[in-house]
Amino acid sequence: MRSETWRADWMTEKCAIAEALLRGEAGGSYGEAVIVVCAALSALAAEVWPGRGIDRVRFVELLVRHGPQRSVLRTISIPLLVRNLEATGSRVQAAMFGQALNALGPSRVVTGTDVDKTESELATVYPGLAPQALRKHSYASLLYEEVRSSYAHEYRPGARGSAWPMTMLRDLPVSYVNRLLDYDTLETTRLIHFHVDWLTKHGIEVAAEIDTLSATLPCELPKEWWIEGAP
Length: 231
Description:
The chain is mainly alpha-helical. It has one domain (6-217). 53% of the residues lie in helices and 7% in strands. The protein has 12 helices and 2 strands. The protein has helices at 6-22, 30-48, 55-65, 70-73, 78-87, 91-97, 99-104, 112-115, 119-125, 131-135, 139-154, 196-212; strands at residues 174-182, 187-194. It has a two-stranded antiparallel sheet with strand order 1-2. A hairpin with a 4-residue loop joins strand 1 (174-182) and strand 2. Helix 1 (6-22) runs antiparallel to helix 12, helix 2 (30-48) packs across helix 3 and helix 5 runs antiparallel to helix 6 (91-97). The longest helix has 19 residues, at 30-48. The termini are far apart.
């Protein structure tokens, strides 16, 4: 008879494989490591909320609802939010949100703790921006789009992500990679990097929490998912 607390052990095994791949074992790299971890998280999400056509919303839901670090996964990436606002013509909003970021200069190597904000912090700056617009740039949503989905379908990180960190600091959820876009204008941007050591630790913690919910699984689909605006 299978124990109802097997998920944390199973996730621990998968994360050990991911960490070995990250070290280059079996010809592995960052890409193989994050594919393993994100696939395992997707499997957990599918057990909690079974169904088709909901992979993205339930992946994000798992990360922002479960585990002791769930509030971190709700954090909004300021560099990527500003980049999106500039691309969509919202330059006033982009300048407002990017003021502190711009003060650091384009060459400064920054981490998430240096620049990123919570949704409530951003709402005090510009209360008119819809929660859905902010949450598209949450760590949970970006992990799905720039890592999980991109590697599964395109063999590489998304256009806003990077497989290579610019910092040697550890135990960080994310950091940013400075990228020169145009040699003539010296236009730069920042790409997000998700650190595998933090991601594996969080994955194990999420699995352990899902173990405690075994008797109530699967859960009913929410009327509204967090990424769509639910509280």
